[in-house]
């Protein structure tokens, strides 16, 4: 096994492949983001096909033997101040939840913050709901990464589609364009 691929074991019983070699398992914005990465970094991203009915984290982990503390959820938050709306994607371990009304709201400089409506999140990201991932987010969005995700040797995230999952090092997620590692972003679930 290639050393950079050892982290792909976070996908449990699945047999991942190099993500750049399987654009058919990626949403278009995700495939474009992988192409924009340094080839050495892109080679560290694995992808595995899954049953789309099992894309939700708990179902995925139960079916494929992936640990919940090795999975990261990407949630889209809309922050409002007057008529202005700002979006952020928040990446937290699946065993925690994002502090939307505290840390995220303050970081967005918003009076009110909440999970973005599903239709808005899908339309703005070009990804499927339940598969939204930090790779390929719209330009100008904040990507808030909990420190526990950034420190993880590997995590499972969406691929932009419900029919596959990605595995990659937390440090690579923390180094994505627009990413900001935030201590205290996550709270216990």
UniProtKB/TrEMBL annotation:
Gene3D superfamilies tied to this protein: YbaK/aminoacyl-tRNA synthetase-associated domain (3.90.960.10)
Pfam families: tRNA_edit
InterPro entries: YbaK/aa-tRNA-synt-asso_dom_sf (IPR036754), YbaK/aa-tRNA-synth-assoc-dom (IPR007214)
UniProt signal peptide: none
Every YbaK/aminoacyl-tRNA synthetase-associated domain range: 52-173
Protein name, per record: YbaK/EbsC family protein
């Amino acid at each position: 096994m290639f050393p950079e691929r050892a982290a792909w074991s976070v996908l449990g019983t699945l047999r991942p492949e190099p993500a750049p070699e399987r654009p058919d398992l990626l949403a278009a914005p995700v495939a474009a983001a992988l192409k924009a990465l340094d080839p050495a970094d892109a080679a560290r991203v694995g992808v595995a096909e899954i049953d789309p009915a099992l894309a939700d984290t708990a179902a995925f982990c139960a079916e494929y033997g992936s640990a919940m503390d090795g999975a990261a959820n990407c949630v889209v938050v809309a922050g409002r101040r007057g008529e202005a709306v700002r979006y952020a994607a928040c990446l937290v371990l699946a065993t925690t939840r994002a502090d939307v009304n505290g840390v995220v709201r303050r970081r967005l400089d918003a009076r009110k913050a909440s999970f973005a409506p599903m239709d808005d999140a899908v339309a703005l990201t070009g990804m499927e709901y339940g598969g939204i991932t930090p790779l390929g987010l719209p330009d100008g969005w904040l990507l808030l990464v909990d420190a526990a995700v950034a420190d993880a040797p590997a995590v499972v995230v969406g691929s932009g589609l419900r029919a596959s999952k990605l595995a990659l090092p937390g440090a690579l997620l923390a180094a994505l364009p627009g990413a900001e590692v935030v201590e205290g972003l996550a709270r216990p679930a």
